[in-house]
């Protein structure tokens, strides 16, 4: 700030040298925490002239110099304004008034009227009392400058100012936003809250719409309670305002240009939203309560409060497509799934602002504070690969977790929403018994999200009228709370009485609304007047439904086309300087493209992506090292050593190719895998890949694998073509860097729910990845991908094998043998094959044949039968694996091997002994075990 401007500011704010002590106190507070002073004061302190050669990186001048600086400016200003009369006491109180305004912005929420039950025991915040600032009853009649407070003009009588501050910050809304560092965002929130004193001036139609939402919420629960007494429904009662809140969010989003909204939530209130917001027919829900849909989708089905739904909702800005995500009981894990679905929809629409598709996640108060996936999802919210333009996060704050007292047992923070402060999200706490405040906050939240592309949180402080479910007796553990709830009127009654009292509606109109809704439920048809039949808002899944594993698909392509692709993806501009090792890799790729060298793993894999892109399909790959590849093999993203710019050869395939995104992810497995699952469920046409840094790390995402990937189709009819690349192989790197836990995936395999493959050559990985896109079937693909095989001299392929071949589920013996002399056949998968092959050749073993099983599930019985036709005389079959006996494929797949071998033959095991740990940690012991299992398999 220029010195002249500063003097003018000091004059206008009545500062004089007499207030230098207070200035020094505020400056000290500013130095400790710049956010502790008002924006006006921070602007002054931010622009103080530096003394003694100080800079922005050097400590500021001594306080005495600051004090003298303000004194000199004030004296100079008084000398130039001789006619101006100042009162030091009034000037000092002016500063205190500004401080009081700031205190309400910072801490008003702590004394806001948020708890409908009045059970919160919150101490009064002294800084919110005018007396704390030395302001007396006499001062109440005086006019003071209101600084940046956006209500009532530049000056206000102190009495009116205090009243306005209390209404804005200590009423039904408690706004937490001063932790945000961006001044523009804070100013925006102040301009939305302060002029209207934290309320909206709704007309009769808007108020009626809000009451209709409350009528629907309460009417639905009472109807279910009477019709199906004691049945679990996870009632919304007490949090009824969620229904009008969601409706206002949809209306506001539609007006702003939102075309799709994806919602993720757990159990509570789900059935209510399905019927009263998304428009599911009550009759269909009642049939589910009656158990009439147990055979839905010919799968296992799922409980009612896990089900998803899609519909269109009419708003003044056009129809909005609504999608409620299917959700298992692992509550918060649906959040990144929703974000992934939203990102896919945004990418398909070419919308990089997030405006056209909005995510809403609805949380419980215990869950949002207690489950780490919430932190992970917040953390990814602004990252390049996972941003969605901000999300709206709603907490249905029941003030109790199952039977647990929240403040004492479920968290260590004042609010359950404090986790959101890590991304500086504004948090609006709101009393659920004030539905107009709820509607107002909903509109502000949508506008903030669209304006700043950031997350925003609504803490709907309510209560749970019944137990955790309707069979529970809550008073056993919360006697005082439930004694209060029994006497507390419902949100609908409170608001209806208020509208009657203010003459907005008559008592007969209120009664008529209740009866009309109940009649609609009796009829069983949709009760949402804004519901519209769905149009093509989302992708068409029709081409991928009811497809079989063995359907033919066009696997081959011309050698000329493949050679052309190879040339394009091995080219790097001369001015893009590569790191020396990377330059060597690309030099080799040029030789491979020219047919001078056989293809390695990295080049074949990249060619698969190039061919998919040339077909105008999308490719998306994420993982902690996916651009480079954990084991330095992919190098799809090339970093210029001079200026750090990135070059992606895969974006130079053709002018009209499909889009490709290869992004290093946040350091998480659970949230990233869930995100990619969500992405793949909303984008079936392309190839979506999640790559683990090491396959073992998939452990951290086990809930996603169990609850979504392996069972989503069986439970919900949800198809998903997500590919998981899990580096796997025993190479002496210890227990946590060897095994991708193959056995866990095989244990989950049933009903042809997913593919588990262990490719062993570059041609195999090429065909496997292309098959995942070209074949019109969308089920998860789990790949035990290699580490040392990436550069193994025998793990190479020719361009011809890629062009004319196909994926081989089983690979027969490759060496020429006299099959009549073979008396043992060894089945194996992955890296161990090459160790067996090399050892057999070295020892000149001619009586053992090696058969590679490249797809362990669905087990390729027909392919295996064709290969074993020449070994029907063999009685000795062996399964050889690197993993311990209780792990790997032995226990989960041996029944397939038994069914494949000739009658009367024996099947034995060659591998490590059973072990509690996946692998040993000593290199010497590893080598000894490895040699032993190889020798055992080959009868050496």
Notable features of this structure?
Rossmann fold; 9-stranded mixed beta sheet; disordered N terminus
Question: How would you portray this structure in words?
Answer:
This protein has 940 residues and is of the alpha/beta class. It folds into four domains: 1-86, no CATH class; 204-532, 3-Layer(aba) Sandwich (Rossmann fold); 559-804, Rossmann fold, CATH 3.40.50; 810-938, Rossmann fold, CATH 3.40.50. The strands form six sheets. Strands 3-11-12-8-7-4-6-5-13 form a nine-stranded mixed β-sheet. Strands 17-14-18-19-21-20-25 form a seven-stranded mixed β-sheet, with helices on both faces. Helix 16 (435-452) links the parallel strand 11 (427-431) and strand 12 (456-461). It starts with a helix and ends with a helix.
Q: Gist?
A:
Keywords: Oxidoreductase, Thiamine pyrophosphate. This protein is an alpha/beta fold. The chain is 40% helix and 13% strand.
Largest β sheet strand count, sense and barrel closure: 9 strands, mixed
How would the global form be characterised? elongated
Number of strands: 27
Would you tell me the overall average pLDDT? 89
List the helices and strands and how they pair.
Layout: H1 3-12, H2 20-32, H3 39-46, H4 63-80, H5 88-107, E1 143-145, E2 155-157, H6 158-169, E3 173-176, H7 183-193, H8 204-227, H9 242-256, E4 260-265, H10 270-276, H11 282-289, E5 309-315, E6 318-324, H12 334-349, E7 357-364, H13 365-370, H14 372-380, E8 392-397, E9 400-401, E10 404-405, H15 406-410, E11 427-431, H16 435-452, E12 456-461, H17 479-487, H18 491-501, H19 507-523, E13 531-532, H20 559-569, H21 580-593, H22 601-614, E14 619-623, E15 638-639, E16 646-647, E17 660-664, H23 670-682, E18 687-691, H24 702-709, H25 712-716, E19 723-727, H26 742-748, E20 755-757, H27 762-774, E21 781-785, H28 799-804, E22 810-811, E23 824-828, H29 832-843, E24 848-853, E25 855-857, H30 861-868, E26 876-884, H31 890-900, E27 906-912, H32 923-938
Parallel strand pairs: 4-6, 4-7, 7-8, 8-12, 11-12, 14-17, 14-18, 18-19, 19-21, 20-21, 23-24, 23-26, 26-27
Antiparallel strand pairs: 1-2, 3-11, 5-6, 5-13, 9-10, 15-16, 20-25, 22-24
Helix pairs in contact: 1-4, 2-4, 5-6, 8-9, 8-10, 8-18, 8-19, 9-16, 12-23, 20-21, 20-22, 22-27, 23-24, 29-32
